[in-house]
Amino acid sequence: MVSKYARGSVRPMTRWGTEVMHHLNQPVTDFGPELQTLVADMFSTMDAAEGVGLAANQVGVDLQVFIFDCPDKDGNRVEGVVCNPVIELPEGKDRRLDEGDEGCLSLPGAFTKCARPDFAKVTGVDEHGEPVSYEGTGLLARCLQHETDHTQGTVFGDRLSRKYRKRLYAEAEEFAPDYPEDWPISPMVQHEEEDEEVPAT
After folding, report:
1. Which of 95, 103, 110, 172 could disulfide-link 90, Cβ–Cβ 3.0 to 4.6 Å?
2. pLDDT tens-digit profile of 92-144?
3. What is the rounded CA–CA span in Å between residue 69 and residue 63?
4. Per the confidence metrics, is the pTM higher than 0.85?
5. How many Å apart are CA 192 and CA 187, to the nearest integer?
6. Catalytic annotation present for 196
7. CB of 126 within 8 A of CB of 83?
8. Catalytic pick among 34, 147, 171, 192
9. How far apart are the first and last CA of the chain?
10. Strands (E), 51-130
């Protein structure tokens, strides 16, 4: 499936610990060219980092917007842009937790189990200010919750016990040399240069 969204420039990933990652982001009120450029850049950055979702604060922008390109439980690919997201989760007897592995592009290389509801629905508006609604199960449900959390200044480490959070940070530290400060830019450039060196057949 070819994406319906334009691509732009790859931006460096903002890491956990940076202020914009840990406070409620500003609502989107301007749906002009700057937002369109941001969304295109976010898609390119997510692609370069091989992720399934990305929030604006992960590229250092204090706005409540996220993008995603993620399969649901049945393997169907779903992509979208959500500004000013509001999440709806099952309650009571309908609430079932999925204890799957979770990672974050802003803490690259580290994964741990994080219990989340196995279904999620997000409503908001798209990059043009038009109403949107997305819902799903499996990885899509996790992605919608993870990215909405980002817009609220919550990283998934905030949802872990101290023991699991400590283990997660230790794993991230172990893999830190693989992710330079400007990641995913310089690894992408290096990969492109290596591809150019391959002789044509």
Report:
1. 95
2. 999 999 999 999 999 999 999 999 999 999 999 999 999 999 999 999 999 99
3. 19
4. yes
5. 9
6. no
7. yes
8. 147
9. 28
10. 53-55, 65-71, 77-88, 97-98, 101-103, 111-113, 116-117, 119-125
